[in-house]
């Protein structure tokens, strides 16, 4: 009986994870995203505005909205890279692309980003509690939720609501989504002026001079 009790105690000790059950991949969390060279110049004012909001402790949720293809994701990629370069504002910055995800899928994507495995937990409430507990332990962090098509109650997903240790930026095509996500600051991204749009087009095209006349007219 004493031997069995000893084995049980040993197994219980092996099952304890004082720092949480986390497989954190710092390489992924700190990996810069590729952006066009001209983006920072063209969207400089938007980037500056978002940066100021990130510095404000009273702002925890930021919404960036505008029509598809207008540059929301590209702006946030630039902000993401600037945060990684500075490494002064947040302990970690996580990028999660949502696009028509269910609550369960969103939980899995965020969990994967922070190095947590929720695949063996089916109960949505327990998944939310586990994810919230994990995020609360990380320290000050930023979640960039890209391409959100519908709103999600943060508590049901498992994103901590208390304090300002977890900031969130969402990109979406809908102002209504920003409002329903209770974003404290909202930025609308308009299409680029014609000259800047043309400059960006040529930058990505490369050899414009070599285009046939018909293609030049279309361009």
From TrEMBL:
GO MF terms held by the record: ADP binding
Protein name: NB-ARC domain-containing protein
One GO BP annotation of this record: defense response
Pfam family of the protein (one): NB-ARC
Residue intervals of the NB-ARC domain: 44-203
Keywords from the UniProt entry: Plant defense
Domain of life the protein comes from: Eukaryota
